[in-house]
Amino acid sequence: MEDSTPAIIFEGIEKSFGSLKVLQGISGEIHRGEVVAIIGSSGCGKSTLLRCFNRLETINDGRLVVNGIDLSRPKLNQKQLRRLRAQVGMVFQQFNLFPHLSVLENLMLAPRLVLGKSGSQIEEQARFYLEKVGLVEKAKAYPEQLSGGQKQRVAIARSLCMNPQIMLFDEPTSALDPELVGEVLVVMQQLAEEGMTMVVVTHEMQFARDVAHRVFFMDRGCVAEQGSARAVLTQPKSDRLRTFLSRMNFAENLSN
């Protein structure tokens, strides 16, 4: 029987850094197999919200459950944290590859240390995911020998090697030259089509409109608008969202 429980449930979550309140009582849920794009201006809290979903940040108040793991608690034991890290993959802006390890070694490290898999087993899996992102020929290369787009595709493959049930993407194309953005978005679109549960913080409005099921528009630590991707991005209800889309050069697409 298919699990109908949402992959992520968050109710009234708050997060502050000192006196700065970054998340102000946000509620929502993300369903299994769904792609949700989180958009908004810099400093609105979208990356902080994403980082709460895999316990890189702890919430100050509210309820947060990710893949059945209650992250509302102040502390998680090592078993719970290890389970969370295995089930929830994350891809960052800056790739975070180990420069002294080859591409293949980067992919094999976490499955060996976290999941306790053997060498031959994880190498076969690593090569499979490198093939998936179109980089199997770079298995022996080192990060410094790759373009930014190739590094990000390796980072995606590395997360997939943990067989995650949820993938989080924190502005995965923001550090890339414009001509390299497309190759990363193609891989992400393929994952979406295969049914991966994905939460994507992004400034790529076209990707959000065409690939995401729903969009959250965040403003000043709150979800100001949410709904189907096409409705939110082509029929914005608030002046704030219209202004944001205009700044993102997406205003000309509002009637499409």
Automatic annotation (TrEMBL):
Residues 8-245 form the ABC transporter domain. This is Amino acid ABC transporter ATP-binding protein. It comes from Funiculus sociatus GB2-A5. PANTHER family: AMINO ACID IMPORT ATP-BINDING PROTEIN (PTHR43166), PHOSPHONATES IMPORT ATP-BINDING PROTEIN PHNC (PTHR43166:SF4). SMART domains: AAA. CDD domains: ABC_HisP_GlnQ. The keyword Membrane does not apply. The keyword Transport applies. Keywords: ATP-binding, Nucleotide-binding, Phosphonate transport, Transport. Belongs to the ABC transporter superfamily. GO terms for molecular function: ATP binding. Pfam families: ABC_tran. InterPro entries: AAA+_ATPase, ABC_ATPase_HisP-typ, ABC_transporter-like_ATP-bd, ABC_transporter-like_CS, MetN_ABC_transporter-like, P-loop_NTPase.
